[in-house]
Design goal:
three-stranded mixed β-sheet; about 100 residues; alpha+beta; about 15% strand; single chain
Length: about 100
C-alpha cells in the first residue's frame, strides 16, 4: 500500500477525507478476507477503478479516497460497483 494512504487506513473510519494540493486520488484495498484468489482480488480492483473513472468528474478535487472492498464485491460487475460508489457522493464535500 502506498505510504501516503496509510493515515486514512489507520484512522479506520468508513469515510475519511484528506485534502491535498492535487487532483482527487483513489486507493483500492481488497484483502484476502474478500477472496483468497489473487486473480479475483485484482479483478475487483480493476472493476472499482473502472467504476471510479465513470464518476471522476463528480468527485470534488483535492481529496484522497480509500475504498475497502467487502466480500460482496466478488462477482459484481462494473455497473453494480458504480451504483455503490454513487451512493457515497452525497457524503462528500461539495465542489
Amino acid at each position: 500500500m502506498n505510504h501516503e494512504f496509510r493515515p486514512a487506513v489507520r484512522e479506520g473510519r468508513k469515510l475519511r477525507l484528506r485534502t491535498t494540493n492535487s487532483s482527487t486520488r483513489f486507493a483500492f484495498i481488497v484483502s484476502k478476507k474478500v477472496s483468497l484468489k489473487s486473480i479475483q482480488r485484482h479483478q475487483i480492483k480493476r472493476r472499482l477503478s473502472d467504476a471510479v473513472m465513470g464518476l471522476l468528474s463528480q468527485f470534488p478535487p483535492n481529496l484522497e479516497i480509500v475504498v475497502f472492498a467487502k466480500r460482496e464485491a466478488v462477482g459484481r460487475n462494473v455497473e453494480e460497483l458504480l451504483l455503490e460508489l454513487k451512493s457515497l457522493l452525497p457524503c462528500l464535500p461539495v465542489k
